[in-house]
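TL;DR need structure tokens for one chain.
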Amino acid sequence: MVRISRASTVTAVVALVAAALSGCGSLAGTPVPGEIDVRTLAVGDFPVDKFSYPADAGDNGPMLEGIRMSEAVVTSSQVDPSLKYGRGSKVLPDTATAIDFLANVSEPVLKNRRMVVGYAASGADRDDPEGQTRPEADATAITVVALRFPDTSAAAKAAEELENADIGVSPDNRRLKSEKYPDALVHWRPGIANIGAFLAHDEFVISLFVQRPKADSKDLVSWVDKTLTAQLAQLDRFSPTPLADIADLRVDPENLLSRVVVADRKGQVPDPDKFAVYGRNYLINSADDQPARARLLDESGFEATAYADGSSVARVRDPAGAPILVDGFVESTGAAYDAHPAPAAIPGAKCLRLNSSGDPQHQYRFRCFVPYKRYVGVVSSDSENEIEQKTAAQYALLANSL
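>> reply
TL;DR here they are.
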């Protein structure tokens, strides 16, 4: 399903350069034949003039590279179609975050070998039990982590030291070998139905954690092999940014973030959850049915999506894909939402309203999907009046941005 949850407010850390036009709700633009005149739309105080965010990443370069690395890590359903339940993914901007996916004793290794950034993704063959953050004991689940280091030498040393640190956590841990990947460093604890592995590949270290229903070392190693096969192929399709160029990464290189309607454009800085541009894998990793989400993205011609302050804008290959993406998102939203009338003035918009089975503490009451040419905006609110203004503002901003 499409998970409709509340996004926390971004804390203003760095003041961004103001746009040439002030961030007010006045409507710019000239009506195009065959389209509505967006100057007539009730957009409230949301800014809808054409806009660009400041260009360079500066100190946020590693964070932007970590966001890019969402496409460097395989989705669980690519490893095995049975692993259709996405358990999410995460940028690892620092060593303290990275050890959430490694043994705590691993942090000195990451610091000494100067980890640049990382990315983790997880999936399973069933959803986690309600209210739990771990898979069931008899589930098959995998977590794949890619860690970037300054060079191949640092990565090779880090892989060996991470394995030594991990295996040293318990005297019961034992090393295993993979015949398919003899350079992989693999270990398990006999009688425990999971396995860990590290493999250096170029300037990256791949870390795997695999859980299976039974403690069978041969079976567990076979899952390490199939996961590495998929992950190495994914990593080889990724082009890492040279270290010297990371500080020059652009915050919004294709002006996709600037097309997302927000209440305040000032103070926006790169943030993996609140201000970021992602490719397809990020959307697949959060899906309860990864193959279905992948088909939707393929059929719609999905290219990228930008997230800002709880709203988003996706770009597709051509205008024919926008309504396909809207319909797919609406259909996969889940039973907690019912159809709700969209503002009549907005062509193609579709809206939803939280019903009695939803959780208003964690889910927005309203969400609307707004297609415009090659773009699909998604806006949310707890206020019916505000969702109407946001929907109109998102349409107007998309129109004014071309």
